[in-house]
Design goal:
Distance between the termini: 52 Å
Number of strands: 8
Low-confidence stretches: 1-5
Largest sheet: 8 strands, mixed
Number of helices: 7
Strand content: 25-35%
Order of helices and strands: EHEEHHEHEHEEHEH
CATH architecture: 3-Layer(aba) Sandwich
């Protein structure tokens, strides 16, 4: 007698969509790069997605950084203000006591996942975003409740709450306990895909985007 095999189990990976990033290296990219990052199963079903903007601070005159972000959106200007003093492209000193080099930041302003995506799945997703998308000398910033994770779970990922704001951030280059465990197990996201998952997510994303 053989063990039953669950044919609904699927491996998942990130899919990054950005027309600009696909054709230009960082040095030739615009100051602000819109990105969509999807959590996609091995059969191409989208079960989670985030929207964000990557700001290449090294390509911006420090005096113009806030104005460029403010011209894009209120959310991006708030994220910029939480990270940087006006007139500077260096992080607030209290956020960067070790004077780490920051060449860009990713602001994630929208996120949605189907209900069966667990907190651990969302943690792995955030870890992969920092590791793959922001590319080394940069930070990720998002709302403290965007991913529906507890403060302890965010801290495990290396995210810190920015005092006086609703944001958390992390250095993409930081190694933390979670990333060590992730690398040790060569882990990933495996899901038991329910029927109509694709349709359910499409409806969820449409509602969030139109809300």
């Amino acid at each position: 007698m053989t063990d039953d095999i669950n044919e609904n189990l699927y491996d998942c990976d990130l899919e990054v969509t950005s027309r600009i990033m696909a054709h230009a290296p960082w040095e030739e990219s615009p100051e602000i790069i819109p990105v969509e990052i999807k959590l996609v199963t091995s059969d191409d079903t989208v079960i989670g997605q985030v929207s964000g903007d990557i700001v290449s601070t090294f390509r911006v005159d420090p005096a113009d950084l806030f104005e460029i972000c403010d011209a894009d959106s209120a959310g991006l200007s708030w994220a910029c203000e939480a990270l940087f003093p006006h007139g500077s492209n260096q992080l607030h000193q209290e956020l960067n006591p070790n004077d780490e080099v920051v060449l860009r930041f990713l602001f994630i302003y929208r996120a949605a996942f189907l209900p069966f995506i667990t907190a651990e799945h969302r943690m792995i997703f955030l870890h992969l975003v920092a590791d793959r998308v922001i590319d080394g000398e940069g930070v990720v910033i998002t709302g403290h409740d965007t991913f529906d994770l507890t403060p302890a779970q965010l801290a495990e990922l290396g995210y810190y709450r920015i005092a006086g704001s609703d944001f958390v951030f992390c250095f993409a280059s930081h190694t933390n306990a979670f990333s060590k465990a992730f690398d040790l197990h060569d882990g990933g996201i495996v899901v038991d895909l329910p029927p109509a998952a694709a349709e359910d997510f499409a409806a969820m994303w449409k509602e969030i985007c139109n809300g």
